[in-house]
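With this grant's support, the team has encoded backbone shapes as discrete tokens. A representative record is reproduced below.
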Amino acid sequence: MILLSLFWEFLKIGLFTFGGAYGAIPLIRQCVLTQGWMTEEMFSNILAVSESTPGPIMVNSATYIGASQAGILGAAIATIGVVLPSFAVILLISALFARLVKHRAVQAILKGVKPCVMGVILATGFTMALEILTGLPGLFSPDIPSILLFILLFSALIFYPYLRKKPLPPTALILLAAILGVLFY
């Protein structure tokens, strides 16, 4: 039963995610919490690992969540569920792309969906940041190490380009976050 549930939930996530993997984060979060597969903290940890490992966040998250619920078979089933819609859509679009993109209706739809996806991503990031930095949702119990870690990483992200005349590489930021996480916790 868990395998069918994993496939169905991640198939729905794959079907209704628009705008890339970051657009899937709110759907994955809602699914995992609603199904009771993980806590908010566990999901945050999975998100961090999924972001810092090679591959798309959505696929990495599905694989890890599937593995945590039903082992290797669960990982495979969840991964297949989440990538199947994209695979089918890409096959269809690649066959029709040249004709579709010229239509004003398609361009209008894409222009309308982009701000929505950005809003969903920002709202989820803001909600997760508040929960991580202040403790439980709705309660104010600040997590001082998380706040300090956030300030240090944000400062590095902002000031590094001024010092080195180039942006901070994402891998360096992830490595710095891992080192600071070990030191702080």
User: Anything to note?
Assistant: The CA atoms of residues 1 and 74 lie 11 Å apart.
